[in-house]
Amino acid sequence: MNCAGTLGELLPEHYIRALQKTRIARCSRILYPAHLKRMSTPSQSNPLPEPVPQLDLSAQYAAIGGEIRTAVERVMASQQFVLGREGAALEEEIARLCGAAHGIGVASGTDALILALRACGVHSGDEVLLPPFTFVATGSAVSALGARPVFADIRPDTYNIDPGEFERRVTPRTRAIVVVHLYGLAADMDPILVFAKARKLPVIEDNAQAIGASYKGRRTGSFGDVACLSFYPTKNLGAYGDAGMVVTNSAELAARIRTLRNHGQTAKYRSSEPGWNSRLDEIQAAILRVKLHHLSNWQRARQSHAAEYHRLFSQIPGVMPPLTPEGFEHVYHQYTIRIEQRDALQKFLSERKIGSTVYYPYPLHLQPLYSALGHQAGDFPHAERAAQEVLSLPMYPELCKEQIARVVDTIAEFLKY
To answer: Is 154 domain-assigned?
Structure first.
């Protein structure tokens, strides 16, 4: 099946038509008319291979750019740029998607974590349990409040936090647990929630990479006391700048976070406590509302691409593809494989114009930021080994089968050496 057939099955017809009207899509054989392809080919006998980027946001913009411009112009005409109708509507829509009662738009995913932790009662000198294998923002949000991150190792199969680690990491100073749903796959929430309830600890979901994912029939973002979202441009639902949101089922926590995001104001010019300037602006909210209409189609496309990767990798020993345990729905923010010769493979792919990224090469406990905690190599072996072996391959909705096949064929070629 060619790329046109693949994309046509996964994305709406108008989306494909929009891509076909541009020359920026990577699958030129499918998305360009044949005569344009001939004109653009440098050499008929030895054509240069098209790069396969790890992420291609230009293809997305080619399809929805008109909708985006209309939304931005609507905000410009309103001349309301902060805490307006677009942001309020987005808060309702994202909360509904996550299965939560309240959404609170903030300036970034990092701010979402900081405000959620503060609203849950974390203060200077407290401790917070979290995984060491995640983006630094998960830990630095804890540090920003003067609290101490206490790491719990990950499961080697899913890369998510291992709740079996909690008992030996918890102390009388522990005030919260931050659970990261990494790469688009939910953490194992049932044992986490059982432990948290027994210890009366709030659970904060770092849902930055897993919007739309589910665990045993429930959406990520609906399990914890609060959940934090990032709309950084590279996310499955990405803004055109920094943006974030907190979702919660608690009216009390929602009200507190709304106060904290706006200088601690309970009324105009009346602040009851120190707060932040962390308000989601109307332009980003309007852009995200456009993209939200496409998110379910994009998610299906990502899952189909992952299935194709799985099928091809099943014939290649030496590569561990991402796993999805029974009862989980993965949304593939990243398609992350595991391979012992990771650095050499990444170099090999780069030389052949195939993009890849390491998320993340340094676990938090070995970051210079946390050297004062006194951790050493070997303290969290599963996180450390993952940091040495994971590699995220091209993954975005407009990817096509020919590109996936080229990526896998190139990895197979590498493994033959």
So the answer is: yes
Nearest to 152 by CA among 134, 128, 169: 169
Alpha carbon distance, N-terminus to C-terminus of the chain:
30
**The total number of structural domains that make up the chain:** 1
CA dihedral of 266, 271, 277, 280, whole degrees rounded to 10: 10
What residues pair up with 219 in beta bridges, in sequence order?
Answer: 214
Q: Which domain holds residue 123?
A: 66-292
Residue 222 counted as domain residue: yes
Under 8 Å between Cβ of 89 and 97: no
The closest alpha carbon to 283, from 316, 331, 243, belongs to: 243
Amino acid at 300: R
User: CATH no. for residue 110?
Assistant: 3.40.640.10
- What is residue 23's three-state secondary structure? coil
Residue 50 falls inside a structural domain: no
Report pLDDT digits (tens) over 173-197: 999 999 999 999 999 999 999 999 9
Nearest to 303 by CA among 226, 210, 240: 210
Distance CA 194, CA 207 (A): 19
What are the structure tokens assigned to 328, written together?
A: 């989980």
Strands 214-215 and 218-219 turn out to be antiparallel
From the DSSP assignment, how many helices (H) and strands (E) are in the chain?
Answer: 16, 14
The residue behind tokens 């450390």 is: 384
**Residue 82 gets which letter from DSSP?**
B
CB neighbourhood size of 16 (10 A)? 19
Residue tagged 């917070």 (tokens): 128
DSSP state of 109: H
In angstroms, the CA 246 to CA 121 distance is 16
Rounded Cα distance between 153 and 149, Å, is 13
Confidence band for 349, pLDDT divided at 50, 70 and 90: very high
Residue 41 lies in a domain: no
User: What percentage of the chain reaches a pLDDT higher than 70?
Assistant: 89
